[in-house]
Amino acid sequence: MTRRRFLATTAAGSVLSLSGCVGVPPALVSSSEVEAMGLRAWSELRAQQPLSRDTGFQSSAQQVSRRLLTHLGEPTGAWEVQVFASPEINAFALPGRKIGVYEGMFRVARTPDQLAAVIGHEIGHLLANHPEERISAEVATETGLRLIGGMLGASNVGNADVITAALGLGAQVGLLLPYSRNQELEADEFGVRAMVGAGYEGRQAVTLWQQMELAGGARAPEFLATHPAPAARIGAMERLLATLPA
Description:
Blueprint: H1 3-19, H2 31-48, H3 55-72, E1 80-84, E2 91-94, E3 98-102, H4 112-127, H5 130-154, H6 160-197, H7 203-216, H8 230-241
Parallel strand pairs: 1-3
Antiparallel strand pairs: 2-3
Helix pairs in contact: 1-5, 1-6, 3-4, 4-6, 4-7, 5-6, 6-8, 7-8
C-alpha cells in the first residue's frame, strides 16, 4: 500500500470510528461553558426577535411551564419561558434554563395539553443535558476532520479537500444526525411522562404530532433529517402511552 493510500485509509477509519459511536460522547466542554453559550445566544435572540404581544399566548406558556416544572421539582423562578413574535411553527431550549416558543406553534398546539407536550419536550432536552452532549459531539467531529484535512494536505494527497468534504458528510450522516434523532426521541418520552405526571392528557401529544405532520409539508428522508419523522415519533409515543396509567 502506498503512503498516500495508507493516509487516506487511516483518515477514513478515524471518521468511521467516530460514526460508529452510539453512546454519549465524552464531555469536551464544561457545563458552565455550555450554559454561558446558551445565555449569550438567548440575550442576542431577545435583542433581535420581539416577544409576542399576545397575552393569551404568553399566559398559556407561563401556566403550562410552571405546572410542569412544579411537578418535576424544578425551581420555577430559575427558568424563563417566552413566546416570540414569529409565524414559525417551532420551539427551542437553550442552556441556562431558557425556553422559547414561536407564535406559529399555537396554530398546531391548540390546547394546554398539546402545549404541555411541546414545553415538556424542551424541558427534557435541558434536564437530560442534551446541549452538552450535542456540542461535545460537534467538537469531536470537527477536531477529527481538521486533523484528517491536515494529514492529507501535508502528504500532498490529490483532491484532499474533496476527500475531507466526503468524510465530513459521512460523519454528519453517521454520527451527528442520528445522535440528534435519538435525543429528540428521548425528549419526546420525557415530555410525555412529565405532562402525564402533571395531570395533562398524554394522548394529546399524539394529536399534536398528527397536526404537526399535516402542517409540515414535504420532508427530507428521515436518515438525513435531524428530527425523526412524525410517524416514527407518533409510534414511539403510542408504545410509551400503552405502558402508562390512563
